[in-house]
Amino acid sequence: MQNELVAEKEELEEDISVLNGMKSVKEEHIEESDVGVDEDENEDEDLSPTDKCLKESKPKGKEEWEDFQSRLKICQDEFRHIRKHKLPYRTACWAPDEHLDDFTTLAVSENYNEILKNLPPFEKKIHIVWQDNWGSDVWKYKNIDMVKYGVQNLQDMNPDWEFFSYNLKDMEEYIEKKIAKSDWDMIKGAPLVPKSDIFRLLKIYYEGGFYQDVDRLYNIPFSKILTNDTKLLLPTLYDVTFASDMLGSSRGNPLYKRTIETYLCKLREQAGEGLTEWGILDSSQLHSVATEAMGTYFAAVMETLFGRPIWGPIHHQVDEDEGRAFGDHVRKVISESPYILTHREVWCDLITSKHPNCEGITKKELFDAAKLKQWDGSDNE
User: Fold this and answer.
1) Of 208, 174, 187, nearest in space to 264 by CA
2) Mind listing the pLDDT tens digit for each residue in 5-39?
3) N or C end: fewer C-beta atoms under 10 angstroms in the chain?
């Protein structure tokens, strides 16, 4: 009973903290309501439930501010419900995502193709991240299939490429140099994976080259994949999203600059919700925070390639195809650019790997040998 009371008290204190943070906009709300501007009711149709809730809750005078705080608590509860059930909600980090009645009109913008054309050649640099409990490099585990058929092949098949392996200390030093102090203060207490997410984006943007996770297979030399015109690798994970366990680009690609901006913006939003108090988050919360932040990659890709954020495949289902037609069209128009390579990835069929019957090769053996748990604290599967 005591533990339940402590948990309830902590949750209430979090809500109060968020509410107190809203006091800074108190006068803004009051001034807007005193002006008495008529608002177009049709705009409500484009608002998310949470946005409508907050709009309806706007105080009409100082005497209603206390009531507004109570209503805001209800809105926050609704927001948590939306997050818990993975429903679409609005973010301030990019323009509202669009749902297209006819997605076959999508085409990569001529402006972005011109930008890619003028980027420098694809740098021959390979980046990986590895950190075990003893400070060993990944080659200690070279006899494990996940390493043998993954990063070992990656190095051996591309002898003319520079190969870089980074540990947690390397990443932290690099990230701290590249982002604002306030952003570093927000992320410095995070586990390895959120740091790896922003690190890979920064590395590819500033230095270019190829990044892949250590639990990803590889067996096709870059000499058989890349052309002189290739400036960006952009495969999709099934028809769900764009793959982020592998990144490849010429340096200076504005796609990565935009992803970094939205990633950090999303983390700031989460910080405002108390979701970057890394030390007290459980494994489910850690996973949610990291996947939401890295999910900004999809928004940045759609915005950069097509000129505005667009809902993903699952929101454009045709005859319950789970977004396959949408995904096929997006890959088709991406493939029409001479500067971008794409592919519909499944585990044994990747843009950089063809491993028939590879289902038995997983990261579990590697993580068990290194005595590592999943980054969010959950057990290996």
Assistant:
1) 187
2) 444 445 444 444 443 443 333 333 333 333 333 33
3) N
